Model the fold of this input.
Amino acid sequence: MLKYGVGLMALSSALLCSSSWAQDLPFAGVNVIVANNAGGNSDYMPTAVAGWEEATGGSVSVEPIPFADIKEKILTALGADTFIADLLVVPSGLAGDLIAGGYVMPVPEASIEKLDYDDLFPGYRKNLSWDGVAYAWPWDGDVFTLNYRSDLFENEEYKAAFAKEYGYDLDVPATWKQYADIAAFFSGTNRGVQFGWAEVGGRGSGSFHAFSARAVGYAKAAADPAFYFDPETMDARIGNPGFVKALEDWKAALPAAIPSVTTLGAFETHMAFITGQVAMAVDWTDTGVMGNDPTLSTIAGTGANAAAILPGSDTLWDAKANSWETLETPNQPGYAAFGGWIVFIPKNSRNPEAAISLADHLGSAAIMTRASQTPNSGVNPARISTLDDTAGWVNGAGFTDEAHAVNYLDSMRNSLLSENLVYQLRIPGYSQYEEALELAISEALTDQKTPEQALQDAAASWNAITDRLGREKQLRYYRSDLGLSADVQ
Amino acid sequence: MNARKKQSGTLFLAPAASLMLVLSIFPLFYSLALTFSDMRIAAQEVHFVGLDNWKRLFSDARFGATLINTFVFVVVGVTAQFLLGLALAVLLHQEFRGRRFFRISFLLPMMMSPVAISFVIGKLLFSEGVGPVTHLMQALGMGPLLWSRSALGSTMLLIAIDTWQWVPLFIVILLAGLQSIDGEVQEAARVDGASRWQTFRYVTLPLLMPLCTVIILIRSLEAFKIIDIIRVVTGGGPGSSTESITTYAYTMGIKNGEIGYATTMAYVLLIAMTIYAVLFLKLARRVSNWKYSDNTPKEVSP
Done:
C-alpha cells in the first residue's frame, strides 16, 4: 500500500513539475529553422541562440545556404509559397524583393519596444523599415572603412621621405588622390609592405561596393539624398562625370595595388591587409577584429591595424546642377556597404511565435554586441551601445589597449553618423543593377573600355533594367528607400 | 495473336514511355514555353511576351561574346586535350618500368572536383599576389603574371585547368583503344617496311578514329556547358571575356532571376551544340573516308 502511495506522490509531483516547466519554457519541443549564410554567420548562430534555447526550451536548426544561392533559394521558395525556414537571416539588399513580394511579416509592436530601435545607427534603423513599417529585426551592420598600417604611417624615416617626395605630410588620407600617393610611396619599395592597397575589386565578389565607396566622395552631395538614380525620373546617374572620375582615379591607382586586386573578394582583402602585404585596405570592418587574431594575422598584438573614415574628394559632381563644385574640405561620406545581415520572418513560418521570440533575442543589444566582438562571427556593430562598450572590445576582441579600440570604433562611428552616409541600395532587382555595374568596372579596370564608356554602357543597362521592372514602381521604391514621399512633386 | 502481342508490348512499354514523357519530354517543352514568357524568380505573374526574349538575345552584344568564348573553350580546349591525351596514351602503351604507377597517377585529376582543382590552380598556384608561380617568375626576373587583367591570359588559364583535368579521360579511352588493336596488324605493317611513325599514322590512327570521334564529341558537348571552372577562377572576367553561355545564363537566371531570358539562352546553347555535333560527325566521316580511300600511302619507304 505504502509502495502505491509513494508511486502516486511521485507521479503527481512529476506532473506538477512538467506543467510548471511548460510555463517556464514556452517553446519546449518547438524547433525553429533558421536559413542563414553558409560559413561565418551560420557557424556562429549556435552560439548566439544557446541562451534562447536554454531560456525557452526551444531548439534551433540552422540551414546554411551558400552566399551565391541565397536570393534564388529564398525567393523561389517564397514565390511558390513553399516553406523554407521560420526565420531568415538575409542581406539587407534583399529587403526590396522580400517586402515588395509581400513574403514577410511586419515586426510586432511588442518586439519594437523590446528591441530599442533608437539604439541602432539611423541608417541601420531605416534599413529595417519600408514606408514607415518595420519588417526586419536587426542583427548585423556593415560599413566600409579605411584600414591603414599605423606603424608605417608613424615611421619617422618614411614620413620624411614621403614629405620630400610628395610635398605634404604622410597622414591618414583624406582624399583618394592622397590615398593613391601613399599607396605608390609604399608599393614595391621595401618600406614594410609589398603593395600599396587592396580592395574588394573582384567581379561578383563586391566590386560594386568598392567602387561605390570611392564614388560617394566624388558624386554624393550632402544636400541631395539621392546617389545612384535621379529621384525625379529614375534615370541612372552612374554614367555622370562624378562616377566616371571615381573610376578613372581607381584605375590610375592600380599599379600600386596588390596584383590580384581585380579578383579579390572580402576575405582575400582582409587577409591581404592583416598578413602585412599592403599598407592600406578599404573594406568591411571585420578586418579590424581579424587583425587582432594571432591565428590569422601577422600584425596581431602590435596595434598597427588602424582604421579611419573613407577618403573622399575635394571636387564634387553636383548632379542637380550638372556641374563640378570645388570644396575647401574634402567630401568624405560614409558608405554602408551591403548594409548588414538582417532578420525577416516569412509569412509562411511554421512557428511564427517562436521565431519572433528568437528574432527578439538575436536583435537584443547584449547578443548583438557579443557577436560583434567575437572574431569570425560574421557580425559587425549596428548599435550605438555596441561601440560605446570600449572595455568589451579590448577584452573580447583583442585590441591592444583602449586607444587602439577607440580608433577602430571611431572609424565606424564617424562613418555611420556622417550626415552624408550612403546606404546599401535595396530596391527590387538590386542584384541586376549590381551585376551590370560590376561588369562595367571589370571592363574599365582591365582596359577593355574607357571608364567613361564602361559607365555609360552600365547606365544604359540600368535604365533598361528599370524599364523592364517598371520605371514608376522602381521610382516609388527608390524614393521610399531614400525617405522621400512616394509621389514625385 | 499478333494484335494481342502488340497490345501487351504497348502495355509493357507504357510505364517507361510515360516516365520518359514526364521526366524528359515535358521539361523540354515546358522550358521552350518559358522562352516566350517573362517569368522571373518570385514574380507573382507570368506574361506571354512572344519573341521578345529571342529578339533581346540576338541584339545582346554580351551574349554574342559569350557564344564566341564558348566556342573558343570547346575548340581550343578539346583539341589540346585530345592531342595531349593521345600522346600520353601512346606513351603509356609502351612497356617501361613503373608503367602501372604512371597509368594510375595520370588518372587522378579526372577524379577530383573541378571546383577544388580550379581553386588550387587558379586561386592558389597562379595567385597574382602570393602564388608560387608568381614567386618563381619574380625570381626569374619576369615580374608577376597578371592574368586576371588580360582576356587572353584568363582564357588560357581556364583552358589549361580544363585540359589538366580532362586529359585523363582521353588517356583512358585511347589507351583502351590502343590495347584493343590487334598487334599483328601493326606487325604486318612493320614487316612491309613501315617506320614507327608510318605505322602509327597509317595503321594505328585510322583504327582509333571511331573511338577518337566519339570521345571528342562527348567531351566537346560537355565543354559547351563549362561553368564551374569559370565561376571559381575568373567569374567570367575580366569584363565578360571568359564568360560562357552557361555562366551568362546562370547570372541572368539565378542571380538576376530572369528565368525566361536565361531559358532562351539555354535553348540557343542546345541549338548550337546540335549544329556542332552534326557538323563534327560529317567532318569525322569525311576524314575517315579520306583515311581509308584515296589518301592511303601508295608505297612505304623500305
